[in-house]
Amino acid sequence: MPEFQTSPGMRDILPPESTRWRRFQQVFADVVEAAGYGEIIPPMMEDLGVFQRIGDATDVVTKEMYDFIDKGGRHVGLRPEQTASVCRAFAQHRPLTPWKVFYAGPNFRYEKPQRGRYRQFDQVGIEVLGADDPYLDVEVIALGWEFYRRLGLQQVDLLLNSLGEPADRAAYVESLQSYFEANLDALTEESRITMQKNPLRVLDSKRAPDQAVISAAPKIADFYSPDAASHFEAVQQGLTDLSIPFTIDGKLVRGLDYYRRTTFEFQGATLGSAQNALGGGGRYDGLVESLGGPPTHGVGFALGLDRTLLACDDEGVFAAPNAAVDVFVVDTTGGREALRICNELRSNGISADRAFENRSMKSQMKGADRSGAEIAIIIGSNELEADTAVIRPLRAAITEGSQQRDVARNTLISDVKAALAQAHSTQSPKEKA
Ligand code: HAM
Question: How far does CA 298 lie from the centroid of its chain?
Fold first, then answer.
């Protein structure tokens, strides 16, 4: 065992899985760029104060931050999410509104690592700042929904709630607090502690003994002001117009403190209940202001890449791509000709790999097989002398129709193109995918 290993909850993403990650981010960018979102790349580390604005009753801030004093004496943190950074950027740069941005990249939370829960994890997300329209909430949710559809995921459930206006929420929290205080004995020790910090979060408890008290607790819907009720109504109506199915869950309070009005979560039906949140978001009117900007409406979501890919594995969709090159060059004359041929192929848009260290023919052919290439180009001393090359089909499906043949060196590229076209035309659709 080597001396150094990745830290707990942190992983190396190796090929071909890393290609799958990149494609995941590309599919996301395609979906949201087509809706007018531009990419923001905030720094991974910021003044700790930025992240503290997420809220002081959330574990993400109080227990899970990676924070330290840098060499200049600044107290900084690694970002646990990117919404706060986007709001800080908005307050700093004051772009025109509505400001529609998307992001992709790693976040850090010191959590207990387990399947689907890591200390470094990736998210893709969008945020829109400066617009209050309920149909914007619908647009945001619909883009998340469309993204799952593009990945091929089918077993995703959308849960929806509204936490009301700040005053509604405050009245609700007060009523919850009195209710839980009156029922303290029936709550678990953990929930009693949570209640002191934020009674809303007790609703999130998955512990069996808490469930009876929670199900009889006051309901947020009874606290909506007319504005909050009509906003929520319009969100539901918009989702129905777009045929996006949803379930209203009055207990959906989410793990971060900044939400006001709409909250939602995408859950993967194939994942265990502890880690089934594929992504979530909502409105956070007020966060920009707390970061020194003007009062600004905000809505967005973040989707966890790691968990979404686990859901893709479960459903057998969006598999790691086949990373094979088109051509593998075998050169038993020292490797210089392979160097030239690879270069020519690549500059003609044909992907190519080769063996190094002047290995034997047998060993190079093994490499060719392993590479998954459609064809091998073989150069031995005879070919080198005669200024020719051998094209050999490597995959079973094409050997029937096309045999190994000698071609002139100066027509090699066009002969390779023809051989590849033939190979692709004789493949089954499954192989092509
Ligand atoms: P969040 O619910 O904390 O929201 O995270 C969103 C998603 O990130 C989760 O549903 C999950 O898939 C993934 N995730 C979170 N923590 C971990 C972890 N330790 N390991 C693996 N995946 C994880 C936010 O981050 C908000 N910023 C969302 C938002 C954007 N709200 C408004 N705008």
Answer: 21
